[in-house]
Amino acid sequence: MKRHLISAADLSRDDAVLILDTAEEMARVADRPIKKLPTLRGRTVVNLFFEDSTRTRISFEAAAKRLSADVINFSAKGSSVSKGESLKDTALTLEAMGADAVVIRHGDSGAPHRLATSGWIGGSVVNAGDGTHEHPTQALLDAFTMRRRLVGADASTGQDLAGRRITVVGDILHSRVARSNVHLLTTLGADVTLVAPPTLVPIGVENWPCEVSYDLDSVVGTSDAVMMLRVQRERMNAAFFPTEREYARRYGLDGERMAKMPEHAIVMHPGPMNRGMEITAEVADSPRCTAVEQVTNGVSIRMAVLYLLLGGNEPALTATGTSTRTEESK
């Protein structure tokens, strides 16, 4: 793997499979009475969040702590950023404190790339979502969830999502999740279709490695997974569709549409949900919806990413389930 994780497009097929396989090992740790490995003891991970977050921030914090890293949570609110401090000066402060990895969420697209290439930070940089650009660890946990639900533990490594039909529905224009999923899922061999109103499809989407449809009913019946995206009102400065009711009627997933999906197919959502708009309560609470599983899997994926960036490429666990670094430290 590279030193940083900025974009899902930076991951080769081998990189992606390595992360997914390592996450499977990390998931076993969650089944133990003591859910910790000593792998990153003495390392410092900084969660640098300039945007509000619940799932992603807590997930990265839990992942780092389960690997025994020291964790510093930095929120722009209540910090010197609110006084006008620049990203550069904030980064230099973190570097002076000895940060080995910085997990950054920022409202500006490209901020993690700037941090990674500027020389301000000596450690690894992980993109936890930047503007409307990308969210690579979300795509990884989505792929991990699909692999577990659609293929199972006996999947042929690296081939498990090949040929699977994944449909991503909703606010594609403002979605960093959609962009990262298109990159990663196509790298893993899946066929991706985006479904959205024409006003919520990005300019240049014809150059993306996916299909585009404006009719959810035409593709839902052949989908292995349907991923519903939240309508991001906070990023909208204009009317992108007539009414919420009209949007829900055309592009929302309800029980009737879910019934048209193949029996094995799953419903996904990165959260938070707008229940009653892009997804009904009936669908959100059904056994086919993996939203809660995605949160659980997010910890395993982020453990894998931090481990591979900071701990090395050797197996995280031995065949007996003991950390390799535990053996080395004895």
Q: Your description of this structure?
A:
With about 325 residues, the chain is α/β, with parallel strands linked by helices. It folds into two domains: about 10-135 and about 295-330, Aspartate/ornithine carbamoyltransferase (Rossmann fold, 3-Layer(aba) Sandwich), CATH 3.40.50.1370; about 135-295, Aspartate/ornithine carbamoyltransferase (Rossmann fold, 3-Layer(aba) Sandwich), CATH 3.40.50. About 35% of the residues lie in helices and about 15% in strands. The strands form two sheets. The chain has a five-stranded parallel beta sheet with strand order 7-6-5-8-9, covered by helices on one side. The chain is globular, with a radius of gyration of 20 Å. Residues about 155-160 and about 320-330 have low confidence and may be disordered.
